[in-house]
Amino acid sequence: MTFQAVWKRFKRRKTSLIALFILLFIFAVALVGPFFTKYEPTEMALKNKYAPVSLDNPLGTDQLGRDTLTRLIYGSRVSLSIAFAGVLSGCFVGVLLGVLAGYFGSWVDSLISRLIDVLLAFPGLLLAIAIVAILGNGVLNTMIAVAIFCVPSMARIVRGIVISLKNQEFVQACQVMGASTGRILFRHVLTNAMSMIIVTVTLDLGSSILTASALSFLGLGVMPPNPEWGAMLNAGKEVMRSYPLGVLAPGLAITIVVISFSLVGDGLRDALDPRLKNLKIGESQ
Amino acid sequence: MLKYALKRILQTIPMLIVLSMVVFGMVRLIPGDPVKIMMGIDVASDSYEIEKERLGLNGTIVEQYVRWVERLFDGDMGTSIFTKKPVLQEIGNRFKPTLILAVGGTVLSSIIGIMFGLLAAIRHNRFTDHFLMVTSLIFVSTPSFFSALILILIFSLQLRWLPSIGLGSWKAAILPIVTLGLTAVGSLTRTTRSSMLDVVHQDYIRTARARGVPERTIVFRDAFRNALIPVLTSIGLRFGSLLAGATLVETVFSISGLGRFLVDGVGNRDYPVVQGTVLVMAISFVLVNLIVDLLYSAVDPRIKYS
Amino acid sequence: MNPLLEVKQLKVHFPVRLKSQFRPAYVRAVDGIDFTIYKGETFGLVGESGCGKTTTGKAIVKLVEPSAGRIFYDGKDIARPMKRAERKELARNVQFIFQDPFSSLDPRLTVGKIVEEPLIIHGLGDAEERRKTVAKLLTDVGLSADRAQSFPHEFSGGQRQRIGVARALALNPSLIVCDEPVSALDVSVQAQILNLMKTLQDSYNLSYLFISHNLAVVKHLCDRIAVMYLGKIVELAGKQSLFEKPSHPYAEALLAAIPLPDPEALMHDEPLEGDMPSPIKPPPGCPFHTRCKYAFARCRIDEPQLLPLDGDADHLVACHLCHPDTGTIHKIKK
Amino acid sequence: MKKAISMLICLLLFLSVVTIQVQAEDATYRDTIVFGQSSEQNSFDPAVNSSNNVVLPNVYTSLIAIDENNQLIPGLATEWSVAEDQVTWTFKLREGVKFHSGKAFDADDCVATFTRLMDTSLGLRQSSNYVWIEEVYAEDPLTFVLVSKEPYGAVEGTMSHKSAGIVNAELVESAGTELGTTPETIDGTGPYKVVEINPGDNVKFEAFDDYYGGAPLTKYIEFLLIPDQAARAIAIETGQIDIVTGLAPDDVERMNTDDGDGVEIVMNESNGIHLFQFNVASTNADSAMSKPEVRQAISYAINRDEICEALYSPLGELPARSLLSPSVIGYVDMGVIEQDYDKAKELLAQAGYADGLDISIMTTAIYNKGVEMAEIIVEQLKGAGINATLEVVERAVFIESLEGLTPEEYNEKYGWDMFIMGAGGDIDAHQSTYRVFHTADTGTNENNYGFYSNADVDKLLEDAAANVDPESRVEMYKEAMQILIYDDPIGVTMNQRNNVYGLSENVENFLLNAGNTIDWKVLQIRED
Amino acid sequence: MKPILKVENLTTSFQGEEGRVTAVRNLSFELHKGETLAVVGESGCGKSVTALSILNLIPNPPGKIDNGCIWFEDRDLTRLRKRDMRKVRGNQIAMIFQEPMTSLNPVFTVGRQVMDSLIIHQNMTKKKAHAAAVSLLTSVGIPEPELTVDRYPHQLSGGMRQRAMIAMALACRPDILIADEPTTALDVTIQAQILNLLRNLHDEMNMSILLITHDMGVVAQLADHVLVMYAGEAVEYRKSKELFKSPHHPYTEGLLKSIPSLTEDHLVLYNIPGSVPPIHAEIEGCRFADRCSYAQPYCREHKPELEGDRESKVRCHFALNVT
C-alpha cells in the first residue's frame, strides 16, 4: 500500500487528523521551542512568583518565579524523549521476541511465551515500579522501565500476527520456493506485520507517557529540577491552590498528548489496515 | 465444570512458580550486596553473617530459592528494614484498602464501560457514539493523579461534599474509587463497543433477525452474551491495572494501601517490602484472571466442554 | 513409465492440545498411504474435508513434517530433514499451487515481484533476464505482461490463481502439487483455469498431483485417482476404471452423492448416513465401517489392505467385500 | 449558574457556622481529636524512636519536663541535684505515679530504662546520647542516682529528652526487642495510652485517667498519617482533621489571610535550622572544598534573606543567626551573613578559582522546601561565578549516604560538594554540636556528615562539654560558632525553622514548647 | 394462479469505499405456492442480496433497498413497519443460511434457538416449545433429539448443524423457505443428505422454496423453476427441465457447458472468456456482451430487457434455441 493511499484514508478521520497536527506541533515545539524561549527552564525571578498569565509569562510563573511555559516546553523534550526512546527500544525487543516465538514455534515459542506471560502478570505500572526499584530513578532508568513495560504486550501482539501470517498461503508459498528464513521474515512477515506494529507503537507512546509521568509523580522517575511533566505536576501539587496552572498546565499537556497519540493510533489503524481492531490503550493506569 | 476449574487452577501453578522466581531474582538484580542493602543503616558489621543466614542468602542460588519458597509457605516474607515488622503482616494490614479500591474501581468501570459501550454500539456512528467514545478517551488519557487532584478541588474543597483523605467511610471511598474507575472506563467502553459491533455483524445475529426476534432481545440477549466474552478478558486485565494504578490514587488520597507501601518501600530501599508487595500484587492479578477464566465457561459453553 | 514421486507408508500426525487433557492427542491426518506418480501424468487425490489429502500434498513440498514413511522424488528420499541447499534443489523440481487465490499472494508486493521472487531466491538471471522471464510467464498463464506493476488486489479471483500458477512455473518444475486450485472459483472461471493447466502441462512437460474434493473436476483432469477417507487411501485406480467400476463402498457413495446438473437424473439412492469420524480417534478396523451399509463383523476389527481388484494391479481397493478371502485377521492393538 | 450554586452553598455553610457559634456559649467538647501527621512514628520505643517529638511524649514522660516557656520543670522527678564531685546526680522521684498497665512507678524503672540505653550492644538508635553515663542505681524506691563518667553539662537537657522517657522495667524484661511494637508492648507514664496501631495509616490513643498530672480532658486522640502536604492542608481546611503539622508556606499564608476557613495557624520557634553542609573531604576541583576561602565564598554568595522571603515568609522563618536555635542552652546570636558577590569573588580568586568553580549540590524533598531552596542556591551561586549542578535524591539515598562512609567511599559513590542538612538539635548546645561538629574518631561520616575537622573547634567543644558553669560554656560555644560559621565554615546556615500548626478554630488549650512538644493533657476541641 | 411472493423491480445498493454499488438491478420474479424456485449465478451476481432483501435483512447502512416492491399476501414487504416485518420473519417466511457454524448462536443450546420462533410467534410456553423442538429435531433426522436439544452448536457436526438450522426455520411451518446456499459449506455426502431432506420436507409440507445457489447440480436436483442472474440482473427465467435442456441465454449456456461432466469426457472444457464486470461498472448495452461469443456490435449499444411469457423469459437480443 502506498503512502498516498494511507494518507488518503487517514485524512478521512477528522479527529485523527487534528490529533496528528497537535502532535506535530508539540514535536516541533519540543525540537525548536527551546531556541525561542525567553527564559531558561531554571531561571528564577523570586520576586515574581505566582505571576498571573501575561504576555511575559503566558502561563504565569511558579513558586520560584520560573516561567511555566518555558518549563513546559523543555519538559516536552524530556517526556517525549523518554516515551520515544523507551517505546522504540522496548518495541524493538518486543517485535524480536514476538517474531522469534511466532515464527519458530516449539520450545522457542514456549520459552518466550512463558516469559511474556510472567511479564504480563505484572500490571503495567507495577512492572515499571519494580524496574525502577531495581535500577533507581533518573531519566535513563525511567526510559528502561518504559521500554520493558512495552516489551510483553508488543511481543504478544507480534507473535499473534506472525502465527497468523505464517499460516497464510503466501508465506507457505515462499517456503515452497526454498526461500531462506531471513527472507521470509523480513520481506514477507515483517512487512505485513508492520502496520500493526506502527499502530501499537503509536498507542504505546501514549501509555508510556502516562507511565513515565506516573513514576515521576510518585517520585520514582525523573526528579526535579528536570522539568518532566509528571515531576512538574508533582511539584505543582504542593502549591496548586496558590497557582493552579502549575498543576493544570502539565496535567493538560499529558492528557492532550496521550489523547492525540490514541487518536492518531486509531486513525493509523483504520488507514493502514481496517481489519485490525480492539487494540488496547491506556494500559498503564 | 469442577474438573475444568481444577485443571485451570493446576495450570496456573507453573505460572506462579516462574513468577516467584522472577520476584526472587529481583533482589539479586540490585547492584551491590543485598545483605548490606537489607541490613540497612544501623546493623553492626559482625552480624553480617548472621543476617545473611537470617535473610536466607547463604548457599547456592537454588538452595536460596528453595528456602525462600519454604519460608513463603510458612507465611514468612522477611522483615521490613524500615518498620522492622514481618512483611506479610504489614501487607495484611494494607491489603484491604487496595482491594476495596481495585474491586470498587473494577465494578464501577465495568458498569459504566459496558453501558457506554453498549450505547455506543447501538448508536453506531451517530452523535451518541462519538460523544461516548471521546468521553471515554478523555477518561483513559487523563492521568489519574491529575484527575484526582481536580476531583478533590471540586468535591472536597469547593463543594465540601466528600472527604479527601483516607478510606474510613463509604463517603471517603467515593472519590478514590471514581478516580480509579474512570481510568478503566475507556478501554472497557472500547472493548464492549467493538465486541458488540463485531457480534452484531455475525451470521447468527442475522439468523436471529430472520427468525423475527425483536431487536431489543437481539441486542441484550443474543448479541450481548457473545460480546461479553472479550469484555470479561478486558475486565480481568483492567483489574490488574487498577491494582497497580491504586498506587497513584492511594498517594493522592492518603490511603494506607499496598501501592503506597510499595512506593514507600522503593523510596526506603526496603527490598523485602518491595519483593513481598510485588509478589502479592502479581499473584492477586493472576488469581483474578483465573476467576475470569472460570467465569468464561459460565458465559461461553464452548469452553466448558471442549 | 518412470516413477517421478513415490510415497511409501506416509504418516502425518499433528499434536493437538485439548483443553480438557494435559497430554497432547494426535490428529492422524495422514495415516499410512502409498502411491506413485509417473512422469507426465496427473494424479488425482480426492476425498471430503478432513480426509488428509491436503496434508499429503503439503508433506511432499515439506510444508509439514511427515511423522513416518518415505517420499522419494526421482529416487531420492525427501521426507527426511534437509539442508537448505537440498531444500532449494527440491523447490526447483516440485512446486505448489494454493487453494485460496486471495491469501496466497503477498498483498504488499506487485505481481511482477511475486512471480520474480522464486527467480531471485534461486539466483536465476540478472534483473533484465528476470523481467523477461516474468513477462513470458505472465503471458503464458494468460495475463498481459504489462500488468506486472499491479498489486494482487487489483485482480479477480481467476486472474490471481493464474498469478499463482505463473509463480509455480517460474522455477520450471517437473511436478506441481495443486491443492484445490479451482475450488474457490466460480464455475466459468474454474473452467478457464482447468484448461490453462492442461495447456501448461503439455508446454512445460509437467506432472500434477491434483488435490480436490470435486470428483467431476478430478475426472476431467486426472489420469489416475486415489480416493482418501480418514487419512487412508481406500481406492486407487485409473480414471476410467474408477468411474465405471467404483468398488469401495465409500467411492461408490461419493460418486452417487454428486448432484448431476441434469433434472432428468435425480438422485434416487439413499445418501450415505452419518459423518466422518474424528481423525483424533479413528475407529478400529476399516475406517469406513461406521457409515458403510455393507459392513460386517470383520470390518469392525480388521483393517482392509489396499489390494488389486480382481487381479488388476492398476485398480487397488481396500475393502473386505472385494477381497473376501485375502489377508489374515490383524491383531488389534489395544 | 454554577457560581450561584457555590455561593449558595457557601452561604449555607456560613449560616451553619454562625449557628454553631451561638450554641458554643456553654461549650460541649468532642471526645476525639484527629491530628494529621506528615510522617509515621518509626517506633514506640523511646530508645529507638527518631521521629518527631509530637507523639512520643504523649505516651512516655521523662524525669524532667519542659514547659511552654522552654523552662525545665519537674517531670517524674520532683527535684534533682548534682553532688560536689560534679558527676553524681540524684533524682527524687514523684510518688504515686502509675504506668498505663497499672504498675506503680519507682526507681527500678529508671534504672532499667537507662541501663538499656547505656548498652550499646543492643543497637538502639538513641544509645549514642547516653555514652557519658558511668552507672545508674536506685538508692531507694523513690531515689534514683546517675553517675557520669566526667562532669557533663548537658545532663538536665538529656533527662528531658523524649528518648529518656521512662519505660516499665517489667516490660523491658518480658518484651525485649519487641518493646514498642504493639499496644501491649507499650507502657508509659504519659497522659495517653496507645490502643491501636495501624501502620501506614493511623495510631489511636485513649486518655490515661491515672496520669500523674491529672486526667486528660479529651478522651481520644487519633494520629492520622497524611504524607502529602497538599492533602494535609485540604484535610484541615475541610474539617476532616483538627490539628495538622508540616504545612506548606503557601497554605499557611492562605490560612492566615483567609478568615473564613476555620483554621488558625500557631507557630513558635523550633530548635532546628536548615543548612547546606560542605563535604570538606571532596576531591572535586583540586579539593576546592578543603579550602576555607572557597567555603566562605560560597557562604557570601548566598542571599539568605531572599531565600527566606521567597520560601518561608508565611511560616515566619528568618535566616538562622547561629548553628543553634535560640531556645538551645548555649545559644549566642552570631548575626547573618549578607550576600556579597565581590567578597565571594575575591575569596575565590584568593583560593585560585578566579575563573569560576564547578560544584555539585545534593538536596532532598524530606526537608520542607528543601528542593526549592537548593534550586535557588544554584541560581544565586551563578552570580559569584560558581556553577552548581543539582541532584535531588530520594529519602533512602539521603540516609544511605550518611551510613558511615569513609571520605573515599563517599566521594566515589556520591561525590557531592554540598548537601542539605538539619541542625540546631536538642535542648543543650552540647548535644547539638559535639556529635556532628567534632572530628570523628571513626573517620567516617556517621555523625560528622561532612568530614569536618578543626582542632580549635574540637578543643572548644570538649571543654564546654566538661564544664558545668553555664556562663563560661556560652563563651566557648560562641567561639566555636565563630569558627564554624565564619572562619572555617562547616556549611551555609539557612533558615531558623519554626514549628507550625494548623488548628481547627474549635481547638482549645494548644500549648507548645520549642522542642515541638505539645501539652496533651489540656488539649480540647469544642463540639461544632 | 396468484404467486405467493412477487418481487417487482427490486433494486438494492450498498455504499462502498468508491461510491454506491448496485448489487441488484430491477429484479422481478414470482414464486408460486409449493414451487421451488432456484436463483443461480456466480459470486457477486446479487442472488444472496435478493434473498436478504425479501426479509429486509440487508444491513443498513451500508445497504439499502432503493426501489421496488416485494408482494407477500397483498402486502409490500419493503414498506412494512419493523414490527409487522418481524411477524413475517421466521413465521411466514423463514430462512436458512450457508454457514451452519456461524449462523447458530454459539452460546445458546440448539433447542433454545429452535424454541425461539415458537415462543415469539406462537406464544408457546417454554415447556410446550421444548417438546415441539424435540419433535422438530426428529423430523429433520437428528439422532437422539432429546439429548441434542440441550446441546450447543459446536458440539454438532456440520451436517447436524444444518439440520438444526432447517428445524429452526421450519418451526412455524412457514409458507416460504428461503435457502441461501444451504449446502455449499458441506461435503458432498452430507450435501446429499441435506438435499434429500429438503426434498422430503418440501413434499411433506408443501411450502414454497426460494433456493439460492451457484451449483447447477443442486438446482437440477431441487428446482422447478430457475432464475439465472448475472451481474445483478436476471438474465433468464425458465422451467428447470427446459433450461438444462436448451438454455436461451448465452450466459446460461456457457455456465452449463463449463461444468466438468461426470458422465462424458471432454478434452477441453468450454469456458466463458473474461470475467464478470466490476459491480460498480455502468455498462450501456448488454452486461454480458464483453464475454459473449455471440455478441454483435448492437449488443454493446442497446440494453436488452427481460422478455418473454410467464413461463420463460430471457434478457438477450439474440436468444438461443428459441424456435
What would you note in describing this structure?
The complex is a heteropentamer of chains A (285), B (306), C (334), D (528) and E (323). Chain A is an all-alpha fold. Chain A has helices at 3-12, 14-36, 68-104, 106-120, 124-135, 139-166, 169-176, 181-217, 229-238, 245-272. Chain A has 10 helices and no strands. In chain A, helix 5 (124-135) crosses helix 6, helix 7 (169-176) crosses helix 8 and helix 9 runs antiparallel to helix 10 (245-272). Chain A is elongated, with a radius of gyration of 21 Å. Residues 275-285 of chain A have low confidence and may be disordered. Chain B has a domain at 93-257: MetI-like (MetI-like fold), CATH 1.10.3720.10. Chain B has helices spanning 2-29, 34-39, 48-54, 61-73, 87-122, 127-141, 144-158, 170-200, 203-210, 215-252, 258-267, 271-299, 301-305. With 528 residues, chain D is an alpha+beta fold. Chain D is built from 16 helices and 18 strands. Residues 1-24 of chain D have low confidence and may be disordered. Chain E is α/β, with parallel strands linked by helices and 323 residues long. In chain E, the strands form 2 sheets. Chain E has an 8-stranded mixed sheet, sandwiched between helices. A 4-stranded antiparallel sheet of chain E has the order 2-1-4-5. In chain E, helix 3 packs across helix 4 (126-139) and helix 6 (158-170) runs parallel beside helix 7. The two termini of chain E are 27 Å apart. The model of chain E has no long low-confidence stretch (mean pLDDT 88). The A-D interface holds A 42-44, 46, 49, 63-65, 137, 219-220, 223-225, 235, 237-242 and D 228-230, 233, 248, 250-251, 253-254, 306, 309-311, 365, 371-372, 375-376, 378-379, 390-394.
The end-to-end distance of chain B, rounded to whole angstroms, is: 11 Å
Which structural class is indicated by helix and strand composition of chain C? alpha/beta
Number of strands of chain B: 0
As a whole number of angstroms, the C-alpha radius of gyration of chain C is 21 Å
Strand proportion of chain C: 15-25%
The shape of chain B, in one word, is flat
> What oligomeric assembly is this protein in?
heteropentamer
**What structural class do you assign from the helix and strand content of chain B?**
mainly alpha
Structure annotation, total helices of chain C: 10
Question: Helix fraction of chain C?
Answer: 25-40%
Give the mean pLDDT of chain C. Answer: 87
Name the chain pair with the biggest interface and residue counts per chain: A-B, 45 and 55 residues
